[in-house]
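Reopening this one. Same input as before:
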Amino acid sequence: MTSDLELSVRNAAVMWTALAESRGHPLLRRPGFLAVRGDAPAGLRILLRDPDPSPADRAALAELVRGRTGPMVVEDQYARLDLAGLGLTPRTLPVMIRHPGPVPEPPLPVTPVGYADQLAAAEEVVVHGFPLEPFQPYRPGQAFPPALLDRPEVRFFLVHRDVDGGTGLGAPPAGACLTVRDEGVGLYWMTSLPAHRSRGVGRALLHGVLGRFADVPMTLTAARAGRPLYDSLGFRPVADATWWA
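Same output, byte for byte:
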């Protein structure tokens, strides 16, 4: 049986593989880690897939880090490696999981993304709302290329809301997120634009995606601001991941 932490690691591997292949970025798959060698905005991304990588994998990881030329992140959900000797600085973020259970109806309509213009709207919300600073100024298709629409494991969701409270497809995009499905579902980049914060947008997104994936566990890595919402909906911490940058 796959552990809760392993579900999270596998979801992350599916997500980074989909992004790399849709962006045309080289992937390096080793037993101990997955690495994406991105372009200047995306940088180098390394995901640990084994809590105790072999000496060969550790050497390969160190070589990638030393050869970096732009931004980079090493995500160690197991929190076992010490990469300070490579000049990296750690931060700790909780990995959380919610197992299937009742889900409230979203307080605002949540729209699944199915078309290129919707994907561009979701991408712009994430680039500015999360924010993804390396992808600013925003350029359509750079962070989330249209090829992602052809991947059945990847789904994007949008919430539309006017600043005066109007909702529906006629209102501007206010919040967005990405999900990937493996044995469970991983939730990524759930965010809202600053003008729409504390207006129920994040809660609507979370209720909406939980309702659509009610049959499987959902994993995420929580930012401090989002932790109270996740706690209120039954997510529980699995581990404290270390992110090295």
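So the earlier flakiness isn't reproducible anymore. For the record, The CA atoms of residues 167 and 238 lie 35 Å apart.
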